[in-house]
Amino acid sequence: MNPSSRRHILLIANPIAGHYTKERLTHFVEQLEQTGYDVQVELTRAQGHAADIVRAYLERDEQNVPDIIIAGGGDGTIAEIAQAMMKASCTLALWPIGSANVLARELNIPFDDAENVTLLARGTRCSVWPGQITTADNTTPTLFLQMAGVGLDGWIVQNLSPVLKKRIGRTAYVLTALQLAISKRLPPFKTRVDGVSYRTVLSIISKGRLYGGPFALFPHKLHRQPAFSVLLLHRLNPLLIIWHLIMMRLRRKTYSNTAFTILTGEKITCDHTSPIPAQSDGDFRGTTPLQITSAPTLLKIIAPPQPREPSLSKRNSGRR
Question: Mean pLDDT per 10-residue run, the chain (320 residues)?
């Protein structure tokens, strides 16, 4: 292959991601190079560093700007890289090495590295419509590609031990949730979905179907639409929540009830007299008051062909 025709890849990897090893990185890079790519590898050192790396590469002259940026890490690392490259001409690709890898599951990205390299060589793309969140702590919109959570979700991420997460993966979230349920009173707060107000202890605002890994929470994904699936938990009722998850696993429809409301919306706000924490794509984002809307532009991601998404009508029934 003519060196001038070789495509350039920037691979940004989070070395504390749940399924990262130095050996796996070396082997993945070797496979990319054997396919005909020039690969530059950068390892992140802290939250925010991935975005700095992307900006530094995009400021180079056009000939040296990468054709593809591969985000190696979990959903938080992917979102950080995506935000930094939203206005760039290069394409995002995923190397799913995080603890949950929810976005990769949604888009059917191969977890086998050899299959992922084949996908990259094929080059099929999809366009996704990210969400963005502003909070009391950060009024600059922060991008997310999969989901945001306010209330219980935010408390969990805020109190999660990084060491425990690295050691036991998704189980760390479950243990933290149980600890909080025993030790902390969860104050209800106000969530508005397209202007309609609800009393909630947890609000999940999602572009996809899945939550926490392979667990289906919603009947449809909305990655290619400027809208969100929303689950509003009005009170903690473990039996109803488990029933809902089982129904979603069986691909059966569930309906709003006294414990939770499911609907779709385009603008979500949350507020309370005291700060309520929020997370998006697994990273703490700040506290209420907050607002969630769709990002102004689409993002190109290398992925297999995606099934058509249904156009959903908003369902504003349920407890308010």
Answer: 69 94 98 96 96 93 86 96 93 94 96 98 96 96 97 88 75 78 83 97 95 84 95 78 65 66 96 96 95 96 90 51
Compute φ and ψ for 104, nearest 5 degrees: -60, -40
301, 240 contact by CB (below 8 A): no
> What pLDDT does 316 receive?
45
Residue 272 has what DSSP assignment? -
In angstroms, rounded to a whole number, what is the distance separating the alpha carbons of residues 180 and 298? 37
Task: Give the span between the Cα atoms of 192 and 197, in whole angstroms.
Answer: 4
Domains in the chain with CATH codes? 3-123 (3.40.50.10330), 131-295 (2.60.200.40)
CA distance 304 to 124: 6
Give yes or no for a contact between 133 and 141, defined as CB atoms under 8 angstroms apart.
yes
Whole-number pLDDT of residue 239: 67
Place of tokens 């707060």: 189
User: Cα torsion at 276, 170, 220, 207 (round to 10°)?
Assistant: 50
Nearest 10 degrees: Cα torsion 167, 108, 28, 165: -10
Structure tokens at 270: 């949350």
10 Å CB burial of residue 26 (0-12, 13-18, 19+) is: exposed
Question: Which residue bears the tokens 């935000």?
Answer: 83
Going by C-alpha positions, the residue among 209, 18, 213 that lies closest to residue 102 is 213
Residue with tokens 């508005």: 192
pLDDT of 237: 66
Half-sphere CA count of 161, side-chain side, radius 13 A: 10
Evaluate whether 224 touches 309 at the Cβ level (below 8 Å): yes
Residue 271 CB neighbours (<10 A)? 16
Query: Is the torsion defined by CA of 291, 296, 300, 306 positive or negative?
Result: positive
- Are 156 and 148 contacting, i.e. CB atoms less than 8 angstroms apart? no
